[in-house]
């Protein structure tokens, strides 16, 4: 037994020596990277709470990082595109379509187009400006008595209910819905209404341009092949191309943005944000396996959710706060959500 034990002991010492000799040849900087990668790999299965979502998020972390960097750096480019494309449609409407309306339409239709077009334009400009310039709301950095549900792993500060961390803004957002690159801003508690109203009125404006300009588009499309022949001039060719450009752009935006607006309208009806839709869905499935039903604690009923969202307290607010520009603040401070403990009709309007 002794010779065998001695041989095994010598073999183990030789193997340790070889490992140390090989480890000493590796540069210290490279060893740090190898150790860090090994630590990351071990973190995927460090405890029993790890699931497929955690593993997927860890694997896709480089992709998320690239998206955050690109969105952060190109935020102003997206804002410029929104302003430029909207301005181009307004320019065509004023210098190409408005003279046509004044010369061919009846006084009634003329008043309708001028009033509705300018009202829609004012609503779009107002809500887009407010959505980009209004901070979404941030949790307090200092210690307070505000109740919280967790601690942010990146900000290392308490997170109130409905708050989430935005990797692009590098901070937590109150009642975060998502980070909108077209606003170069997060959509949160204090600017959520401005974002939705901008989407709604821009969709209505694009639908208005698409429907009212469909006959002009058909005429311009049918004559575009004949513009090289007289009596068409350079001004006529530019008019036809402008009408085609405006109709294609507004029709495309009305379909794409209309679908997004309907999705957010459904979320508002349910009293949840885009992030909460994902979280609530997972929670509903988890409770369904136990034979229980999940109920959203932040939903006050379909109609009341809209009243809370728009800040409607009386009947006149449907006009002054929904159909006209209004800079009123939303309900609550975004930190606590016990302002409406009852599920009945809170505002009988």
TrEMBL record:
This is Palmitoyltransferase. Its EC number is 2.3.1.225. The DHHC domain is required for palmitoyltransferase activity. One of its GO terms (cellular component) is membrane. Keywords: Acyltransferase, Membrane, Transferase, Transmembrane, Transmembrane helix. It comes from Danio rerio. It is an enzyme of class 2 (transferase). Belongs to the DHHC palmitoyltransferase family. It catalyses: L-cysteinyl-[protein] + hexadecanoyl-CoA = S-hexadecanoyl-L-cysteinyl-[protein] + CoA. The chain crosses the membrane at residues 73-97, 109-129, 194-211, 244-266. Residues 150-278 form the Palmitoyltransferase DHHC domain. Pfam families: DHHC (PF01529). GO terms for molecular function: protein-cysteine S-palmitoyltransferase activity. It is found in: Membrane. GO terms for biological process: commitment of multipotent stem cells to neuronal lineage in forebrain; fibroblast growth factor receptor signaling pathway. It is a multi-pass membrane protein.
């Amino acid at each position: 037994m002794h010779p065998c034990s001695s041989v095994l002991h010598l073999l183990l010492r030789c193997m340790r020596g070889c490992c140390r000799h090989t480890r000493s040849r590796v540069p210290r900087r490279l060893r740090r990277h190898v150790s860090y990668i090994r630590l990351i790999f071990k973190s995927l299965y460090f405890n029993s709470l790890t699931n497929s979502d955690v593993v997927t998020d860890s694997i896709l972390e480089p992709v998320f990082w690239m998206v955050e960097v690109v969105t952060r750096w190109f935020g102003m480019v997206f804002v410029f595109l929104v302003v430029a494309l909207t301005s181009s449609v307004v320019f065509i409407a004023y210098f190409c379509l408005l003279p046509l309306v004044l010369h061919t339409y009846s006084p009634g239709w003329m008043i309708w187009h001028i009033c509705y077009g300018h009202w829609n334009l004012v609503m779009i400009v107002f809500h887009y400006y407010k959505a980009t310039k209004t901070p979404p709301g941030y949790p307090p950095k200092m210690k307070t008595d505000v109740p919280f549900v967790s601690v942010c792993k990146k900000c290392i500060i308490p997170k109130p209910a409905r708050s989430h961390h935005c990797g692009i803004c590098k901070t937590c957002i109150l009642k975060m819905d998502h980070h909108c690159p077209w606003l170069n801003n997060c959509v949160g508690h204090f600017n959520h209404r401005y974002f939705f109203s901008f989407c709604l009125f821009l969709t209505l404006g694009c639908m208005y341009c698409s429907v009212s300009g469909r006959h002009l588009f058909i005429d311009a499309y049918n004559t575009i092949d004949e513009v090289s022949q007289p009596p068409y001039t350079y001004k006529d060719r530019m008019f036809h191309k402008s009408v085609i450009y405006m109709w294609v752009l507004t029709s495309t935006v009305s379909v794409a943005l209309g679908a997004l607006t309907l999705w957010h309208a459904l979320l508002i009806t349910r009293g949840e944000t885009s992030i909460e839709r994902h979280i609530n869905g997972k929670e509903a499935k988890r409770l369904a396996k136990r034979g229980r039903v999940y109920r959203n604690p932040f939903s006050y009923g379909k109609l009341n959710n809209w009243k809370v969202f728009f800040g409607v307290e009386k009947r006149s607010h449907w006009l002054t706060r929904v159909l006209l520009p209004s800079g009123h603040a939303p309900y609550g401070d975004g930190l606590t959500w016990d302002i409406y403990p009852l599920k009945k009709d809170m505002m009988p309007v």
